[in-house]
């Protein structure tokens, strides 16, 4: 997911983080077109349902409906000063940019499939990005950077490392409306897996 937010998983949301534990809010993120709309707004800044529809190959009625659903659950907001008549301008909601998925055990059994679908969609998006890495790395190493790591950590140390990574994103990142002219939208991913299960 890339709605102009940093997505993380974990039950311990840090200060400034917002956990998406509401099942209805999770359902809003489980629709592929809504995720594309969020990524579009995060990468290219404010847009109307018409301009988003043109960019994504969808009709305006469809994108308008999904924008209203995203607004209902707090992921996007209208920009009243830019909207006029029937033309409404949208942007990612301002506020916490670190949105965390709940632990599966914190959800009712009936809501866990929704979380699984959100994570499945995110995994598919991540795999599509990963498949682009060799070509992008060859084209422009200044923007396509990579690192592979291996170390031993304690549970507490790993949690601290993760929070430090998110602090660096907040320190060095910009939203689409406040980015300097030489900034580009950049996909960033961090995941950790225990190696003793290999």
UniProtKB/TrEMBL annotation:
SUPFAM superfamilies: Winged helix' DNA-binding domain. Keywords: DNA-binding, Transcription, Transcription regulation. Residues 24-105 form the HTH arsR-type domain. The keyword Iron does not apply. Residues 1-25 are annotated as: Disordered. The keyword Nucleotide-binding does not apply. InterPro entries: ArsR-like_HTH (IPR011991), HTH_ArsR_DNA-bd_dom (IPR001845), HTH_MetalResp_TranReg (IPR051081), WH-like_DNA-bd_sf (IPR036388), WH_DNA-bd_sf (IPR036390). This is ArsR/SmtB family transcription factor. It holds the Pfam family HTH_20. It comes from Actinomadura rugatobispora. It comes from the Bacteria. Residues 11-20 have a biased composition (Low complexity). SMART domains: HTH_ARSR.
């Amino acid at each position: 997911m890339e709605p102009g937010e940093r997505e993380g998983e974990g039950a311990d949301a840090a200060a400034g983080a917002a956990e998406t534990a509401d099942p209805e809010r999770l359902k809003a993120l489980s629709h592929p077109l809504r995720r594309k709309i969020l990524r579009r707004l995060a990468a290219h800044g404010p847009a109307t349902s018409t301009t988003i529809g043109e960019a994504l190959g969808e009709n305006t009625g469809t994108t308008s409906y999904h924008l209203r659903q995203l607004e209902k659950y707090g992921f996007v907001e209208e920009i009243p000063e830019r909207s006029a008549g029937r033309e409404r301008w949208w942007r990612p909601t301002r506020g916490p940019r670190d949105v965390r998925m709940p632990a599966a055990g914190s959800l009712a059994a009936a809501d866990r499939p929704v979380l699984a679908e959100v994570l499945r969609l995110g995994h598919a998006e991540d795999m599509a990005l990963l498949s682009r890495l060799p070509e992008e790395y060859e084209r422009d190493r200044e923007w396509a950077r990579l690192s592979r790591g291996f170390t031993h950590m304690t549970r507490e140390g790993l949690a601290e490392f993760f929070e430090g990574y998110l602090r660096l994103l907040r320190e060095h990142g910009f939203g689409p409306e406040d980015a300097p002219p030489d900034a580009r939208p950049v996909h960033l991913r961090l995941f950790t897996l225990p190696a003793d299960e290999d």
